[in-house]
TrEMBL record:
Biological-process GO terms, alphabetical: transmembrane transport
Broad class of where this protein is predominantly found: membrane
InterPro entries: MetI-like (IPR000515), MetI-like_sf (IPR035906)
Family: Belongs to the binding-protein-dependent transport system permease family.
Entry's transmembrane regions: 48-77, 89-110, 204-228
Organism this protein belongs to: Methylorubrum populi
Keyword check for Cytoplasm: no
PANTHER family referenced in this protein's UniProt entry, alphabetically: ALIPHATIC SULFONATES TRANSPORT PERMEASE PROTEIN SSUC-RELATED (PTHR30151:SF38), ALKANE SULFONATE ABC TRANSPORTER-RELATED, MEMBRANE SUBUNIT (PTHR30151)
Membrane topology qualifier: Multi-pass membrane protein
Protein name: ABC transporter permease subunit
Amino acid sequence: MALLARLVSLAVLLALWQGISAYAEMRSLPAPSAVLAFILREARNGDLLFNVGVTLARVAVSFVIAMSLGVLLGIALGRSRLADRLLDTPLLVVLNTPALVITVLAYVWLGLNETAAIVAVALNKLPNVAVIMREGARGLDPGLEEMATTYRFDRRTWIAHVLLPQLQPFMVAAARSGISLAWKIVLVVELLGRPNGVGFAINYYFTLFDVTAVIGYSLVFMSVMLAIDALLLQPLDAHVRRWR
């Protein structure tokens, strides 16, 4: 039923889009068939697959970096009051700094290169992960901590059987919210300073006032990210919450 409801809502959306485009100026809002034709044409000449692949690679690298550092930072903040007091303000500053500002500064300080692009995306995502993981680390069950002390768990056993099982739902939540944030920021980073990728392509076609191409690239990459969430992150979320 859930799948049927989604398909019906998608059909209604496409019908509404088709109806509005029929009355709007074609150049301002192309019909779904025109967008589909562009996607197929761009896929045949290889540009679409190349740009989507480049952007996915940037998302993956920055995502792994931000998740790794964010998880460690969040656990440290949640477990240590001193660390939380020292780093809370810098964390809030970065968290509330606009993504555009961080991206521009990364390009100014590191140059218009791939390193700056990855750093900009990772810095934009890292505080979000750290904040979520901090809340998870603060809420660890004291009963399990007492049990670990009683049975004299070593550090590895404590991490594997006490810490990680309790933090897994927070990790998945951070991953799901973070990846949706990361791919949007990657497009901004590419638009501002990279010679390839979906953001670059959207900016290129924007300069040509080609709305069909802009919508086409946006829909393709949005579909890819939704597929990653539905096929990977949602099942993972259900798996870590199965005990409930």
